Amino acid sequence: MDEPRGPSITCPSCRISIVPSRARSMCPFCGSFYNRAADNDVTLRRRNSGDPVRLPQLVDNGNNPPRSQPEFFLRGSVRSSDEEDAGSRQIVQVTGFGPLITDTLGVIHTYITGLLLPPTSPESTPVYVSLPPISQGGEGQLVTLRGEARREAYVAPGGRSPLLSPSTKSPMLEDLESTLILYPTKETSLRQLREDIEEAKITGDYMRLQEFYETTFGSLLDICATFKINPDSEGAKAEDPELRMDFLYEAYDNLADTPTYVTKAALKATIGAVLANNVRLKAKDETKALFALLHNPLFSNQSSYTVFAHLFRRLVALSSGDHQLLINWFARTDPERLRQLVKRILQFITIREFPPANGHKLPSISKSRWWIPSATRVLALINTANSKNSPNLIPYTEFYNSALDHINLMAEYYRWQNPTKNHKFSYCQYPFILSIVAKKMILQRDSEQQMILNARRSLMSRALHQQAPDIDVFFLNLNVRRSHLVSDSLNEIARKQSDLKKKLKVTFVGEPGLDMGGLTKEWFLLLIKQIFDPDYGMFVYHNKSRCYWFSTTQAGNLREYNLIGVLMGLAVYNSIILDLHFPTACYKKLLSPPVVPQNLQHANVGVWKFGIDDLAEVMPDVAVGLRELLSYEGNVEEDFCMNFQVSVEEFGGVKTHVLKADGENIPVTNENRQEYVQLYTELILNKAIYQPFKAFYLGFHSVCASNALIMLRPEEVEMLVCGCPTLDMDELRKVTVYDGFHEEEPIIKEFWEILKSYSPDLQKQFLRFTTGSDRVPVGGMGEMTFKISALNHNTDMLPISHTCFNQLVLPRYKNRDILREKLTIAISNAEGFGLE
């Protein structure tokens, strides 16, 4: 390992200082390249200061061999070399000197008139540069001076300016620099490529294809020249990258069927394209070329990850305007192509995070810590593009990286909450990549930390007041009567607001139950059932959507709405699954905003900008009518005879709402029908229920006040509250442990056969009987614990459950019929404290 040499240098991109081990190093935080000489030489970094560099006259002596590969000049790039003895001239290497162009005869014309300035001292003499000649027939070719073609150019002593400063450029040279970006003409077309592929398959000779990949992907210039619809065009369209994507995909798709030496040649060419810097391209062509390279399937191979990482680095380094272009282009990408791209990036992140022992050796984390942040930021662009489409191009769950469930999630969370340095990356900054299981773990651990903190405060308070310690100070203890469940719960929660963030324990008055979790589940279950009863008039059940929505006619009972919010918050806080049937619109409102604003009196909470699709989740029949109104081609005013006034029927009554001022006198017309639909949607989902939902919102956030909520999507909040609706008995069987039984016993096999034969409703009742809830926790049944214990005596008993421990006690019944009968009776009559 090289020892660090010299002083520290600062990365020009992320501004972090390190002590490099080599003269030319790569920043381990962002991947940018820089060198010690350039960092120490202030004049080379400050391009607009000091005196202009004196340039010598250029002489072509014709002694250099012609260069056949067309390339661009690197503009104004100089590298300091060793200085000669004191008082001598300083020498710099010229790696690029303005654009050179050949006319039809191949003659080089250089316009440097007016740039030649005399040396600063009489002793100074100019040094001449020898340029290589251009071969005949080189029309449109550009030459770079590098390698053996480099020559020395004179810089006056003390001269510390760029090769060409703005003050010394002639107008003629500026015109040339702006116009002489010429792309080589590419002969291969999509048709020609297909013919070459077929010929190669027949003859086994892939040399022509190898040449195609080498010359097509060897530089960003060649990529643009090959795949741009119009290579001479400037700029970019927001809606279209203007690339021949069918040609590009054909070239990529056939790589897998070529010999190894062809894919290696293609990858080698791609490396050169990604790592080349300062290549002059037409406006926005770099963005187009990088977009094209990102779809390369060769990046699925672990051996290509280093260049894949540098491609991410270049994409991240683009301007915000270019990022917006990429988002628009990703949003119009074929869904299957987008899915494969997302998988490649997720695989890259996983392998960098968990390198396989027998895989391709990757650079050490200390030298490549920028890999994962760069890849994640590119993935964020794709996620943004995916979210722009309704429906999404691919499900949001396909951006989950389940491997990250096994990292130190709380370290990521605390790093996000308490950033100490500007280079500290956290996955929590990009929550779309974290699975719902990971987010649940973060929320649960954060809740536990808050519980411990509140319990500690209560204990310290008792100690300060010289009171004896009491175990009850660690819990939110609710004592309720079954006969007065709602009123007792309201009163208990109102009295114990300061204890809401403690561990919940429920006691039913007059019943000798010890709450180890089962009584809490039952309390939630019974309370939800009563509050959502139509007799309470708080929520309206819509048969067609099979969900509840807030009553638009209910003016009072804000305490009850607040209680429902508290219940939901307690459920999430205590990891309890509730059987609630709210539409996704409810959870969108709960996250609007995800954290209660400080100036609550002047802030609107629970307000979301909804569309007709959101209304369809609540009132699908109304949404159908509104869509018909929008698509109607006749005279809306005469045929519909509607005004800006609507009637809503609830609980057998009808209430009229005016959508806008004087709405009863404003007819709905072809011109204003869009406004009518928007106001109708706003009324049902926001305006008419604002006060009840505000109470509900504040109740939820009074308990579940965690910054982790910022990371959640509305659909994920719904899953945390309600669990997974899918029941998979095979998954439950896999996680089951046995006490007194073994898995291959006939009674156990018969038990699972009976359970799988039940209807979905009976399966839910079984789940409620054994666990206290008919909902599956986040992550599916594989995340549950379940135990079946044997009862060897008294086989006339019904099965017994311990909901606190997800345990079923099963007698050894004599045959299958008795087992089915007893089990069905038990799960069908499970309500009430008849269970332990």
From TrEMBL:
Catalytic reaction equation(s): S-ubiquitinyl-[E2 ubiquitin-conjugating enzyme]-L-cysteine + [acceptor protein]-L-lysine = [E2 ubiquitin-conjugating enzyme]-L-cysteine + N(6)-ubiquitinyl-[acceptor protein]-L-lysine
SUPFAM superfamilies in the record: Hect, E3 ligase catalytic domain
Annotated active site: C804 (glycyl thioester intermediate)
SMART domains attached to this UniProt entry: HECTc
Pfam families (alphabetical): HECT
Keywords, sorted A to Z: Cytoplasm, Transferase, Ubl conjugation pathway
Domain HECT: 496-836
Listed GO CC annotations: cytoplasm
EC number: 2.3.2.26
Intracellular or extracellular location(s): Cytoplasm
Region (Disordered): 47-70
Predominant localisation class: cytoplasm
Listed GO biological process terms: protein polyubiquitination; regulation of signal transduction
Any GO molecular function: ubiquitin protein ligase activity
Signal peptide (residue range): none
Identification of the protein by name: HECT-type E3 ubiquitin transferase
